[in-house]
Amino acid sequence: MTGQLRHMLRDDDISHDEQKQILELGMKFSENRFYRQPFAGPQAVAVLFDKPSTRTRSSFSIGVAELGGYPLVIDKSGSQLGRGEPVADTARVLTRMAYGIVWRTFGQDRVEEMAKYATCPVVNALTDEFHPCQVLADFLTIAQHRGGVDALAGKTIAYVGDAANNMSNSYLLAGATAGMHVRVAGPLGYLPDSRIVADAKRIAEQTGGSILVTTDPKEAVADADCVFTDTWVSMGEESEYAIRSKPFWDYQVNDKLMSYAKPDALFQHCLPAYRGKEVTASVIDGPQSVVWDEAENRLHAQKALLTWLIGKQRGDETLLA
Ligand code: CP
Ligand code: NVA
């Protein structure tokens, strides 16, 4: 196998089989935290934040260290990127020192620009458009609770709330890649971009999945195996708080809405959660919720992803399984 530089910028950067391979690796890491150590050396991975984070920061910092590497965590306020240094120049510098670049930022064009100039793998740790690492962790959580990675294809997942945000987009693309039936519901004005829906439908046609976008939360949740929601006000949208507190009330995930899903349906939320807004305490703190497994799985899924990306770059098959 010859080396191949790969990035994870959006959920459809990997194929159905590759997603399965990464999730199987995630299962192994969840059973044995020190299953693989591709960064023995230690070699550094740069982890950059232009937005706040608790889970992504801790899971990448701890994850890179457990992989035998050194996590170089840089915040916007402490970097020249935050003072306007071009992304391309930052990429050219970091790529000469680090073995991977992980970045949480605003526009998707920024991570794409980073990847264009990097000669090491670049990972999207959340942009305004996508959050692919989160959804790998979410699917790992379903696999753990519902019969393994092979059982993901054919499952029905429902995302309800701000259907125009990064989580909604990532569920559409990653769910289609997995061969799932993806149902997304939000109010008019907060539905996904038609280009992302078209991409998801094209992928679903190949994997046996399907895509439904609706304004009816009950239609989305009907018979679902897993129900997801997210904040109604994403990072960067804080000035819209008053406007955004109105249109979503019919999309709150509460006991009534959960009753339309399968009786044993799982509930997941990427966190941070706002109880009494997008989800009631009775659901997120109730028996169907697996949000703490989901949060822990950020660690296992991202270690799997980094190991897989490094395996691809080195052409080292032993790192892919
Ligand atoms: N879910 C998630 O990405 O959490 P953080 O914003 O805390 O990283
Ligand atoms: N949609 C949320 C996800 C947080 C993990 C945001 O972008 O703020």
From TrEMBL:
Its EC number is 2.1.3.3. Pathway: Amino-acid biosynthesis; L-arginine biosynthesis; L-arginine from L-ornithine and carbamoyl phosphate: step 1/3. Residues 6-143 form the Aspartate/ornithine carbamoyltransferase carbamoyl-P binding domain. One of its GO terms (biological process) is citrulline biosynthetic process. It comes from the Bacteria. InterPro entries: Asp/Orn_carbamoyltranf_P-bd, Asp/Orn_carbamoylTrfase, Asp/Orn_carbamoylTrfase_sf, Asp_carbamoyltransf_Asp/Orn-bd, Orn/put_carbamltrans, OTCase_ArgI. Keywords: Cytoplasm, Transferase. It catalyses: carbamoyl phosphate + L-ornithine = L-citrulline + phosphate + H(+). It is an enzyme of class 2 (transferase). GO terms for molecular function: amino acid binding; ornithine carbamoyltransferase activity. It is found in: Cytoplasm. L-ornithine binds at residues 166, 230, 234-235. This is Ornithine carbamoyltransferase. It comes from Bifidobacterium leontopitheci.
